[in-house]
Amino acid sequence: MTRRLWLRIGIVAVVAAVAVFYLYPPKKTINLGLDLQGGIHLVLGVDIDKALQVQTERAGDTARAALEKKGVGVKSIERRGVTELAVQLASPQAWADAQTVLKDLATFDVKEPDQAAGRLVLSMRPREAAAQREWFVKQGLETIRNRVDQFGVAEPSIQQQGDNRILVQLPGVQDPERAKALIGKTALLEFKLVDEGASVEQAVAGQVRSGSELLYQRRVDKETKEERRVPFVVEKKALLTGADVANARVSIDQNTSEPYVSLELTGTGGRVFADLTSANVGRRLAIVLDGNLYSAPVIRERIPSGQAQITGGFTSEEATDLAIVLRAGALPAPVQILEERTVGPSLGADSIRKGIVSSAAAAIAVVLFMLVYYRLSGLVADVALALNLLILLAAMAGFHATLTLPGIAGVVLTIGMAVDTNILIFERIREELRSGKTVRAAIEAGFARAFRTVIDTHVTVLVSAAILYQFGTGPVRGFAVTLAIGLLASLFTAVFFTRLVFDLIYMRGRRVESISI
Fold first, then answer.
1. Considering the entire predicted model, what is its pTM?
2. Per DSSP, which regions of 33-107 are E strands?
């Protein structure tokens, strides 16, 4: 054999060995999609208007602070609609100073000025509002992806749908309530001082003084399991937020053996926390998550370490999920579950069984046809088909691709495409034989002349697969990935491997009078 022939044999051997290596049991197997192993399918709606309202109100607080810093009295700043603030100055005489300050608010324009009454409206610029809307969805997408990754779901599908929807598919998750709670929790963490001078009774009756709010803490009796809600009056101003948290983890209380969430603050957050605890020794600090008060410990001394704790009678799962959402960050906008489907594992097992049966039936039918119609050459094509499937499955395992029911359809289509490539080559060889050429010349011409047609058909389908992957959803993408990998494997097996076998059988220097085709 020539050195070039040995090189080709070596390439095929290496490819086959690598494929077997990636499919060997100790390696990670192919991930199964939602339709094959069960799980949950959620469509989330992002409440962008609510997030914009919060953003506008924060801008109002910033405007008030800036005006008061310049000595401009403010009677009221109230949100109007979603992106506007109605500003009422305490004195019209401060109009000029107020205009100077408010012009520095880069994202708002001044509208409806009434100098005589000392009134004006701040309106968020349309371009800024549009950018904020886009950011809320993209940041929400990233936050949910981070939470799901830490939750430990293999190959989740998380993608944007339309302007304000997020599609979440979690294969293998059989506890939908926990998953929904983890994904949908806004996780807005705030540290607020308890208003010690306020009357809790009056607050419960609806008389909450300005600058404070009424919150409740959930407490469960360990013996009777009876749940009660304890009211607290806290200051509205958040002194620290979840943005100041660098890490969150679950720890166990050595005295009660109950889990709690231990927080590690950022450098800036740690300094603010140290100053906060130093200035408020003896007061209670409320730790609030999504408007629910989890704990309100008394500040005993200055805490310079930047460490804090959230307790609240958690179960192990509750503490773990809380730590996950705090590490992943708060959702920039609330989300609502618009659509929910749960796929049971039994349905997935049935899909797998039917998919395997259909693929096996297609493969057997193709193998038998090639053997009967093309004889020895058909056997070569069948061996090439087996190598094609081996490469396809190994590539999916190596790239950790997700196999879905449409993906199985892609495997079946790949079988047909692979055989079709061999048929193009075989029919071209037959034509060359009928024209009177020798076996060797017919094989040479058959592969050479069929090559362009094979490339054209494969490139066309690959472009279609790329379009499906770019614009399709999860299952469609699974089909596109399977089809693309199968087509590339088909090119290798039909053009490279089949030609190698033909060269070994018919082209090794001896005279060949006939070919089994």
1. 0.60
2. 39-46, 74-80, 84-89
